[in-house]
Amino acid sequence: SFLLFRWVDVYHRAAIGEFCAIAFLPFLIYAVCLLWKDDYKKSAVMFVIGFTGVLQTHILTCELSIFMVFLLLVTSPKKTFVKRRILSLLVSAGCVFIANLSYIIPFLDIALSRSLNALKSTSDKKAGFLNQIVASDLMLLVTLSFVPVIIALLIGGVKWYKGRVLSDKKDEKKTEGESVFSTGVLILLAALFLLLSTSVFPWKIVVDIPVIGSLFVSLQFPWRFLTLAGILATVITCEFLSKVDSTEQKGQLIWIL
Question: Torsion angle of alpha carbons 132, 134, 136, 139, nearest 10°?
Answer without folding.
Answer: 40
